[in-house]
Predict the structure.
Amino acid sequence: MTQSLELDDFYDLTLPTDLAVSPGGERVAFVADQFDRRDDERRSSLFVAPTDGSREPHRLSRASDASSPAWSPDGSRLAFAAARGTDAEIAVSRADEDEESDADEEGTDADDEPKPQIWAFDLERGGDARQLTDFEEGAKGFDWGPDGDRLVVAARDPTDDQRAYLRDRREDDGPVVTERLQHKYDGEGWLDDVRTYLFVVDYDTRETRRLDDAYGGGAREPATGLSPAWSPSDGTDEGRIAFLSNRTDRPDDNYVMDLYTVAPDGTDCRKLTDSDLTATRPRWHPDGDRLAFVGSDPENAYRPSEVFVADVSGDAAHESWSGDFDRTVARHGELGWDGDDVLAAVGDEGLTRLARFRADAAPERTFDAQGRDRTIEAFDLRGDTAVVTLSDPREGTDLFAADADHLADADPTRLTALNDDLLADRHTPEVRRFTVESGGEEVEAVAYFPADFDPDDPDPRPLVASIHGGPIAYDAPTFSFDFSYWTGRGYVVVRTNYRGSSSYGRAFSEQIRGEWGPRETEDVLAAVEGAVSRGWADDDRCFATGFSYGGITTGYLVAESDRFAAGAAEHGVYDFRSAFGTDDSHVWWENDFGLPWENPEGYEASSSIADVGEVDTPLLVTAGGEDWRCPPSQSEQLYVSVKKQGVPARLVVYPDENHSIGDPDRAVHRLEELADWFDRFDSET
């Protein structure tokens, strides 16, 4: 007998994240997150599975935070990043040098937490992973060299003065001192002046050599890293190393990321782009003569990102292969070369799907077997094998493999069954897309229904309008514990791809540029009315919630309407002028609204706090204590402003969380708070 998902079931989830296909395409390595109830920790383990589906995945590691698996060129070794206890061989070497030296103390924070380093399994010899790096500030991205005996690794390299400053900050709670414009970043905390370089690391000896001209910088580096990528080689040379860097005059004052290449000995550094793009995700052609990468407009985030290809064998010119496609390259997955074509995941009308890009033809959508009721959450391609992570609202999230040459009509092979045991006797929601007319536009929404609900012969249910963040993002049918939990409690969940969302083209997305609020609010309300008019939702039992930009939109909704019985604004921004300079997004604010002292009217017009006197909807407000994207002071300001008027309000702050909730117990607590709040103001409970 099936039953609804309960909050305790959260701890039994297995969620795949990073994946990497082996060079020949026969195997795939992937990371899966699981939850340790006893220690209240998220554990990220490394698995390997054959891409023909002949065997179940094999767990290689139980590292607490394994990430970024990468195969050596011959497929015999598998490297990954992890913060684990120091390798015994390195620990002995340290002790031999000087057990009490300062160097022995470096590489850890004051609480002795290990820094991320690069490790590798020798899959032919077997045994445990071997630590390859021992950078005092940890490793921040890597790739294998073409010979498989070296790696390129990005790592911070402080000077003596910087090292002393960091030690004072970490061990003695010393003051933050900075002259950086981008002075903090969510998930990173306070930023400093330490430069990140590329290092070439010998696999056998662990010897490192810094490439002095290969360094990073800029406001976007915390998000993109240097993304080193070492080219294949035919054996006549050592190849070249691609990386990202911002070397403009004011790198903290823009979102430029340029693409460079450098010789492995550190010489001959070349710039491939013209400081007019935010370049990310470089991927070499197997011949080593071309680089595919994703490029976006550093001044206009609403413009769809595109696939670019740079010819590094000639004049290093780069061109867009996206043409007039008008669909953004999705944030999920790598680029993959299939012969001379590039495959990429794209956002396409509320769905992440695959598209094929060519030099001399328009992009083509492919992999029709996916359908429109499940979405891609990760993608990689090597050899002739493409592997995707497909998320299905009813079936969960799993890996599938297909022949890259026949993707259009492929019948994918399922490689994992990560949550089958959990979901076998649990209700999961049916999903339906529907459209409404709003502001002269057709706006699409996705509805999730309870197990005992027939949308064609409905009896009205309570509704949760769950609003996506971004705003340049989109809702696709996906497996979500949250949505399954809500539908298990009898709610219909409606997720609206309001104007401003990506995946519907540039014109649709750009409609909110510089004027946040009115269109999103109108579209969400139209979708809710659409659900009510279809008989899906009880007119008096509608609730609204959203995280990040979804929280911002919830603030608009309760200030501009009385539609909802209660709302929950999570981790949002409500006073844009006071957010400027206290969050990590000053470049974004300027790109959208200009500077606050030059356009105070624009900032105020789009700030829901300006209309907070109109709020009479009971409001739950949540925040992360270390959230530098949407600082907790914003949530406090909204909460106090609502509470001051005598409107029921509640504030929940998660002290150590940034712009997400990673702690399992807190993730469960969040859902408890939301459910209790909506129950409290539900007319029938």
About this structure: Residues 103-111 have pLDDT under 50 and may be disordered. DSSP finds 14 helices and 38 strands in the chain. The CA atoms of residues 435 and 444 lie 4 Å apart.
